[in-house]
Amino acid sequence: MDFEKRKFEVMDSLRNEDLLESFDILEDDHQALILRTYQQIDESKAHCIISIIMSSDSAYSLIYYVFAKLTDYNKKSSIIEFLNTLNNNSVLMKYYLDEKNHIVGSINYIGIDANFNSSEFIALMEIGFSEIIDTYSKINKLI
Fold first, then answer.
1. Structure pTM?
2. Which residues have a Cβ under 8 Å from the Cβ of 6 and sit 6 or more positions away?
3. Please, which residues bridge with residue 24 across strands?
4. Which of 46, 57, 109, 113 gives 61 a disulfide partner, CB atoms 3.0 to 4.6 angstroms apart?
5. Can you state the angle between helices 118-142 and 3-16, rounded to 10 degrees?
6. What is the predicted pLDDT for the residue at 17?
7. End-to-end CA distance of the chain
């Protein structure tokens, strides 16, 4: 399956799940598709930035969730320890602190040609967001 077809199928799967309109298209050309949405995590109005990144020259389609920020640097080692524990227990999601101390979860979906399934990819994004909601409540107590 070529890149244009993968992009079309992802957009179509988002549309079928009534999610497409919640995404901003940051880039859509022959090299990449980058989509972003802001989703509320809980009643405190905390939000999660979800990004989908697909590239024409990679078998990896990426989903990133930026959902918290470490502001108390005295807690950095305990947050990293907690993220490492999450990483040891999660097959789907990997967590890390980025260079701006945002807490990020990521999913790497591998699939091109016949191996790429856009419905599965979008389902993983939704499952990942459910995991983020659960993780946020635990991390929020630590930060």
1. 0.92
2. 54, 61, 112, 116, 118
3. 36
4. 109
5. 70
6. 94
7. 43
Q: Are 140 and 48 in contact (CB under 8 A)?
A: no
3-class SS of residue 1: coil
Structure confidence at residue 112 (pLDDT): 77
Contact 116, 85 (CB under 8 A): no
Residue 143's nearest CA partner among 74, 48, 95, 84 is 74
Per-residue pLDDT reduced to its tens digit, 12-45: 999 999 999 999 999 999 999 999 999 999 888 8
SS3 143: coil
Other C-beta atoms lying within 10 Å of the C-beta of residue 19: 17
Q: How far apart are the C-alpha atoms of 60 and 112, rounded to whole Å?
A: 8
- Tell me what pLDDT residue 104 has: 98
Give residue 13's pLDDT.
96
- The stretches in the chain having pLDDT less than 50 are none
Residue 3 phi/psi, 5-degree rounding, is: -60, -45
Which residue shows structure tokens 């890149």? Answer: 3
Assigned token pair, 81: 């320890």
